[in-house]
Write a structure and sequence with these properties.
The C terminus is likely disordered. Strand 12, helix 8 and strand 13 form a beta-alpha-beta unit. This protein is α/β, with parallel strands linked by helices. 33% of the residues lie in helices and 21% in strands. The strands form 3 sheets. Strands 5-2-1-6-7-8 form a 6-stranded parallel β-sheet, with helices on both faces. Strands 10-9-11-14-13-12 form a 6-stranded mixed β-sheet. Bound molecules: NADP nicotinamide-adenine-dinucleotide phosphate. Belongs to the aspartate-semialdehyde dehydrogenase family.
Length: 359
Amino acid sequence: MTGKPALAVVGATGAVGTVMLQILSQRADVWGEIRLVATPRSAGRKLTVRGVEVEVVALSEEAFDGIDVAMFDVPDEVSARWAPVAAAKGVVVVDNSGAFRMDPEVPLVVPEVNPHCARNRPRGIIANPNCTTLSMIVALGALHAEFGLRELVVSSYQAVSGAGRAGVDTLRAQLSMVAGTELGTKPGDVRRAVGDLTGPFPEPVALNVVPWAGSLREDGWSSEEMKVRDESRKILGLPKLPVAVTCVRVPVVTTHSLTVHARFQGEVTVDKAREILDTAPGVVLFDNPAAGEFPTPADVVGTDPTWVGRVRRALDDPTALELFVCGDNLRKGAALNTAQIAELVAAELTGRSGVADSA
Ligand SMILES: NC(=O)c1ccc[n+]([C@@H]2O[C@H](COP(=O)([O-])OP(=O)(O)OC[C@H]3O[C@@H](n4cnc5c(N)ncnc54)[C@H](OP(=O)(O)O)[C@@H]3O)[C@@H](O)[C@H]2O)c1
């Protein structure tokens, strides 16, 4: 390849697609053409990327003509159908949906943790992990590289935007219903005030926490909990890692938080853990409780790194650490990681053609 690779953003009009266009406008520009793709409903709409208006085209086989890399920010079933179509035309697909994450022939990539896996893609597809896993895995990957992870116990405090636009609209509507009232003092009073307006959540999320995210899986586990376990194992290359997860929805618009109990192969020290986290790419250590300093979603939202605070050694286990982690679920948790993977592929394609050109 002589010029810059051409990129297609499929699902450019959606929640993740919108953040993607902002991110593509902010990062180093490694792309030639950027083509925007969505449903026929959106065809003809003009969206701005890199400061230029680009007309959206409808998804079709021809939409991939001349394209080198395609990001898919669309529902699972759309990726399941169309990613193989693009891949068959020689396009490298980076898929943000859940359609291919656990496919053994599809690498699941976090560029700070397992960038080498992006090169081995027998189906021409690379998958982007789910937002809850992504919100903690960069910090955990850095600690694992030094200490060797043996076990994870995680609780999430997930923002409503993880359930898409409908989640955000629901929280905002519920907040306006309870603002300025005495609700939250009697059993069921918030539920009665909110009525049917629970949106994608099983319970009111305003003035509440809801111990549920996703759909029901075997033995009472939620799909979100299974994703955190299965995807963490795959990304870290630890297929038998014991992982216990409880996913909880909280009244936060954007930015997932997690408490993490991580057990390692041998004794750990807080000083060494802090040194690792302080120097790990993509991680910010913000941990000074004496000064009231620890990450919270209200400060982390809109930023790129994984923020870590409350670093402690477990009181009863010298091989374990306790952490509090925050990450923006729409940036690193979705669009940013996809953009980073696509940039790895762009570098590879350009480098490869350089070798071919000189041969
Ligand atoms: N929200 C999150 O926090 C998050 C985090 C990580 C991953 N994800 C995943 O990212 C994907 C997109 O999520 P989202 O929240 O951005 O969804 P969304 O807001 O509903 O957007 C969906 C996008 O897909 C397009 N689309 C839908 N059906 C299509 C079809 N048949 N052909 C072509 N385009 C089609 C839509 O185009 P139109 O506008 O033309 O309808 C829109 O651009 C999902 O797989 C989701 O699970 C979401």
